Amino acid sequence: MTAQALTMPPENDPADTSNARSETGTADAPLSFNHVSMQFPDGTEALDNVSLALKPGEFVSIVGPSGCGKSTLLKIASGLVKHTAGTVDVDRNHLGYTFQDATLLPWRKVMPNVELLMELRGFPAAERRRIAKEQIDLVGLTGFENHYPKRLSGGMKMRASLARSLALNPSVFMFDEPFGALDEITRERLNDELIALFMRQGFTGLFITHSIPEAVYLSNRVVVMSRRPGRILDVFDVPFDYPRTPELRYAPEFSELCGDLSVSLRAAIEN
Amino acid sequence: MTTAPVAKPRTYRAVPLPPPANMLQRFFTTIMPPILLGILLVLLYWWTRAQLEPHRQFLMPDAWSLWTNAFALPEVRAELVDRALVTITIAVVGMCISIPIGIVLGIIMFRFHVMERAFFPYLVALQSIPILAIIPLIQSALGFGFMPKVLIVALFTFFAIPTTLLLGLKSVDRGVIDLFKLQGAGWPVILRKAGFPSAAPALFAGLRISAGLAVIGAIVSEIFFLAGRGGLGQMLINAKIDFKYEQMYAALIASSALSISVYLFFAWLGNKLFSEWHESGAAPT
Ligand SMILES: Nc1ncnc2c1ncn2[C@@H]1O[C@H](COP(=O)(O)OP(=O)(O)OP(=O)(O)O)[C@@H](O)[C@H]1O
Ligand SMILES: [Mg+2]
């Protein structure tokens, strides 16, 4: 384990839940969207005046109706899509981004797949191997280094994809429905592993999901977006301490929060 | 209560796994069918030959005279080898021209959409011109040497290369490209590390087609160019002129063998390169 990987666990100060919809990008926010709007060249309005600032070490989830612009928001943060109004503050050199599907290169085995981003960044080969091995162990893929992606299960592909992003040790990590295609049990297990990684690596996380329990289980805050063009409708603070354990899923407060979120999301979909 | 339509359940029985095939069964299911068809074809040949009037039976030599008058003769065997070498040289040199040019054109068409617009109609046109029809023109322009034949092979084999490569490059996963772009990779890097590997199976399908056409192109060109010491195509014509039909058949067999082995070589190479990761490369059952 590198010293870097053992950085501080994320702060979780219950008092620190004040203003979710900050109107301007705060100086210490590792990722902030300030009045971001997006209109595609074909006229589709995807986002409408979205402002959201992530505090250092905070984990925020976004839920919202399908097609409301969640993926677009992440693409804007990464620079894959250029927004048409507002500003985004982020250090793109230390931004991790996992897509909705694993996007592994089918002609590369797991090991070189995990090395890919480091290779593109020009890391020396020996360092690449060392870090890749470390990340593969961390996501629990030990022993599968020499498997081609087609021989991995969906969950294993996602782990490889996570390892690939983790290798660059991002300070801000965005996840676009990474576990959407997985069964409930695998998803819950990967949630626990993600929390362990989050605590170990100390990144700031922005996570998109359609699963309310998943959003609550992982996050400090959950953002509810409206139908397209996406606006922020509601922000819920999640008061539970990290590390979160599976029993939390059956706690009454957990269910209550999920219920509130559910009501809010249903309103978002119906209006 | 609603009246549900009357259903008549049928019983579907379980299908137990068949026991693993033993050697004998495998022989019957995989090797026997082609052998049986082969025997059938030989019988058909023999029957057709029997229908011919005796003075025309030279058109279809029997196995014995094929052996005594062609394959058993050392000079015929030597000639076959020599001429096969000439033919394969023409085919290979022709492909050495068409493959790199085709690949470069494929890349250019991929990189610059305008170029695709500009070139594609002409590629299709090239494909639809009967190349045989321009051979006389090539002869008038370039004479009867080695190069015009190579050019004919290049024309025969060109089409499949840029088109399959372009198809392959265009089908590279968008997500993969985004992944590369996020790390600031330029298009040469994307082409090398994402484009080529993912287009390679499609390109190889094109190469297999081209390779078969290369041998055909070489033989066709030789049939048109009888001057000088030519390859198998010339041998075919010479055998006809000299009335040595056994030798013509020998040349025919050698040409097919050449064509098939070039095809098999590319099939083998493609399988070796891609079978481990590509969907089409599932291990043979
Ligand atoms: N390149 C594009 N051109 C035009 N419209 C687009 C483009 N990309 C996305 N859109 C539209 O923008 C809207 C938001 O898309 P986005 O992918 O961000 O939705 P999403 O919230 O991630 O949905 P899901 O939950 O289903 O993944 C959609 O209506 C989509 O049709
Ligand atoms: Mg999406």
Name the features.
heterodimer, A: about 270 residues, alpha/beta, Rossmann fold, 2 domains, 6-stranded mixed sheet, 3-stranded antiparallel sheet, 9 strands, globular, disordered N terminus, B: about 280 residues, mainly alpha, MetI-like fold, binds adenosine-5'-triphosphate, binds magnesium ion
Question: Can you describe what's shown?
Answer:
The complex is a heterodimer of chains A (271) and B (285). By secondary structure, chain A is α/β, with parallel strands linked by helices. Chain A is 34% helix and 20% strand. Chain A has two domains: 3-91 and 171-270, P-loop containing nucleotide triphosphate hydrolases (Rossmann fold); 102-170, no CATH class. In chain A, α2 (110-120) packs across α3 (125-138) and α6 crosses α7 (252-270). Chain A is globular and about 50 Å long. Chain B has a domain at 75-272: MetI-like (MetI-like fold). Chain B has helices at 23-51, 63-71, 74-111, 113-128, 131-142, 146-158, 160-170, 174-182, 187-224, 232-241, 245-274. The model of chain B is unreliable at 281-285 (pLDDT under 50). The interface between A and B is medium-sized, with 19 and 22 residues.
